[in-house]
Specification:
The protein is an alpha/beta fold. It is 38% helix and 19% strand. Strands 1-6-5-4-2-3 form a 6-stranded mixed β-sheet. The longest helix has 19 residues. The protein is globular and about 40 Å long.
C-alpha cells in the first residue's frame, strides 16, 4: 500500500510540473527532429511601439543570457526601423547567430484553442521561414497601428539561419498586458526559454 501511495504521489508531482510548464504558451508546434541545439540568438520583436519592442527584446535577451546562451537584441543593430528578412539574415550570418527568435502581435480575436499540447502536423512553409513566415509578420507589423492599451496576444517563432531558414518552434501567448514588464519577463519569456531548452532546441547552460 505504501509503495502504491509513493507511486501515486510521484505521478501527481510530475503531472503538476508538466501542467505548469507551458501555462502561458499555447498553440504549440516544434520540429520533430531538432539538430544541434542553437548556441547564439538574435532577438527580434516586430513591434512598432519602440518601448514595447525594447522591452520584449531585452527580456528575452536577458533570459537567454541567464541560461548561458549568447543573445543580442535586434534594436541594438536596427534602432530606427524594424529589420526586414534580408537584413536579419545578413546580420545573423555575418555575426554568427545560428538562431533567431521572433515575436509579433496577433489579433486577440484570432481563432485557435488555448492548448498546451504540441500539434503533430507541420505548418505550411515551415522550411522557408524568411521568405514566408517572417516576411508576412514583417509586413503586418509595418502596416499595423502601434499598440495602445489593454491586452494582446503574441506569437513567438524560433528559426535557424541556415539556407532559407527553417521554423523550429512556434507558439502564442494567452491574452496579456504587454506593458506589464514583470509578467512578460516571468510568465512568458522565462517560461519560453525554459521550454526551448527542455525540448533540446536551445543549448543548456554548462
Amino acid at each position: 500500500m505504501r509503495s502504491l501511495q509513493r507511486v501515486l504521489a510521484v505521478a501527481l508531482v510530475v503531472a503538476s510540473l508538466s501542467g505548469c510548464a507551458k501555462t502561458s504558451l499555447t498553440n504549440l508546434w516544434k520540429i520533430a527532429d531538432p539538430a544541434t541545439p542553437l548556441q547564439s540568438m538574435l532577438v527580434v520583436s516586430l513591434e512598432r511601439d519602440e518601448d514595447l519592442r525594447r522591452a520584449w527584446e531585452d527580456a528575452l535577451t536577458a533570459e537567454f543570457q541567464a541560461n548561458g546562451v549568447m543573445a543580442r537584441p535586434a534594436y541594438s543593430l536596427f534602432p530606427a526601423v524594424l529589420p526586414d528578412s534580408q537584413q536579419v539574415v545578413t546580420v545573423s550570418r555575418r555575426d554568427g547567430y545560428d538562431g533567431v527568435i521572433v515575436t509579433h502581435r496577433i489579433a486577440t480575436t484570432q481563432t485557435g484553442k488555448f492548448d498546451s499540447d504540441y500539434a503533430q502536423t507541420p505548418p505550411g512553409g515551415y522550411d522557408d521561414y524568411w521568405r514566408g513566415w517572417y516576411h508576412t509578420h514583417f509586413m503586418q507589423a509595418s502596416q499595423s497601428a502601434p499598440f495602445d492599451e489593454g491586452e494582446a496576444r503574441f506569437q513567438v517563432d524560433l528559426a535557424n539561419t541556415a539556407g532559407r531558414g527553417r521554423l523550429l518552434w512556434t507558439g502564442s501567448t494567452t491574452p496579456l498586458d504587454p506593458r506589464d514588464a514583470e509578467k512578460v519577463r516571468k510568465e512568458v519569456c522565462g517560461e519560453l526559454v525554459s521550454e526551448l531548452t527542455r525540448q533540446g532546441l536551445v543549448a543548456k547552460r554548462k
